[in-house]
Every structure is written in C-alpha cells, then in structure tokens.
Amino acid sequence: MEHSNIVGVAADKCCGLTEWGAANTAVTLSGQTVCAQILAPLQSLTQRAAQQGFELCVASGFRSFERQLVIWNAKVEGLRPVLDDQNRVVNMASLNELQRIVAIMRFSALPGASRHHWGSDIDIYDRAALTKGASVQLLPSESAVGGPFYNFHQWLDVLLQRGDCEGFYRPYNLDRGGVAPEPWHFSYAPMAANYQSSLTLQVLFEVIDSADIGFKATILDNLPYLFQRFVALPPPPLMRIE
Ligand SMILES: [Zn+2]
After folding, report:
1. CATH top-level class for 3-231?
2. Neighbours of 115 (CB within 10 A)
3. Among 29, 131, 195, 202, whose CB has the most other CB atoms within 10 angstroms?
C-alpha cells in the first residue's frame, strides 16, 4: 500500500466528521456543529434539562484536525499560553521537549487524538446560570461548589449514576494522571465507542507522522508513552439508551 493511502485510512478512522462531509453534520441550537446522529439524544437531554430550569448549551462540538493543529502549534511556538492545574502560565523555557508536550497535553489533545474530531463529543454548560455579560470558560471552578454550573452538574451526576443520560457519559470524569478532569465534556457512547476502539497507537502514529506538527520527532519517539497516558481511556460504560 502506498504511504499516502495508509494515512488516508488512518485519518478516516480518527478524524470523524473531517472525512464525512456536510451530509452527516448537524448544527445545534447554540451554533456548534455535531454529527447528525447525536442530535436527537441531545435534544432529549436539552428538553429534560429545561424541565429542571437549566438551559443546556453546547460550548464546543466538532473540531477539525486542522483546527486542533493550529492550537497545538500555537502552544508549541509560545503564541498561546500553556496553563497548569492552578490555571497559571507554565514556564516552557524551563522544560525539555517531552516535558513541554506533557504540559500541553494536560489540557489540549494531540491533533488526531481529540475526541472533538468525531462529532460525538460536546462541551456543555447551563446558559441560564451565567450572569449577564459573562461567558463560559470551561474551568473546573464553574462546576464545583459555589460555581455557576454546580446545580446543573449535580443533576447530570444523578442521571449518569442511573445510566439514564440519553447515551451520553463523561470520558474525563476522573484524574487518571493524563488529561485533566473535564466534567463538562460529554460523549455519545454509541458513536464514540467505535472511534475510540479505532484510534490505535499505529493509527495515531501515521497521522502525526504525516502532519506538519511542532515537536514531531519527540512526539513520535514517545508516542507509546503519550498514548497510554493521555489517549487510552476505559471503554464507555454500559447504559440505558431509549
Ligand atoms: Zn471537550
């Protein structure tokens, strides 16, 4: 097989909507693109939220490989700040290349490894709880006690515990030492499970190898370690889907 064909197959497997074209995309009420398959369960969840007084909005849906690559390279080149767990700017000059990659991957996925490539994953918040003029930031403090979205997430916790969240779950519910916990990140399990099992170390290697990406050699040299720490996740839980 030609090298370019291998890369094409790899990109198909992990880049979701990028390869599907517009026929399979849909736009949510908040203007974010998602895969058409998740629109009905998302509308059900939105309606159930509304009955509780929450205005469920999607802050971020589908994100292309190219967009993630721009974000990644901006962080590599110091054009965008890299933050730590306390929301402070990391002094990248004091770190070697692998340490810089690890610092970036705490909060930004490697292009090709973002679950937002799939169209099955969304970042959600309760617009009704935003004070006038404020905007959502997707920080842990927003969903913690005292934060504007605390009640919204308490309600979601109950649905998730019952396996009654329209097929959605939180892939980043825990701090596994890789990606920081993201309570706002919801994934539609029936779709995401397929992508997750297709995104192997080999596929990601091919995608990175063919990209114009900062720190490429160090990423490829350390990809088994980075994959295990930041990309590999348990399969979606079994849940009730009506
Ligand atoms: Zn997300």
Report:
1. alpha beta
2. 25
3. 195
35 CA distance to ligand 1 centroid (A)? 15
Judged by DSSP in three states, 89 sits in strand
Nearest-angstrom CA–CA distance, 76 and 101: 8
Are 32 and 59 in contact by the 8 Å Cβ rule? The answer is yes
What's the 49 CA to ligand 1 centre distance in angstroms? Answer: 19
- Please name the residues in contact with 190: beta carbons below 8 A apart, sequence gap of 6 or more: 37, 167, 241
In this prediction, residues 107-120 reach a mean pLDDT of 93
User: Is residue 165 very low, low, confident or very high in pLDDT (cuts 50, 70, 90)?
Assistant: very high
d(CA 57, CA 122): 10
| Concatenated DSSP letters of 2-40 | -HHHHHHHHHHHH-THHHH-GGGEEE-TTS-EEEGGGHH
- Entry pTM: 0.90
Residue list, CB under 5 A from ion ligand 1:
123, 185
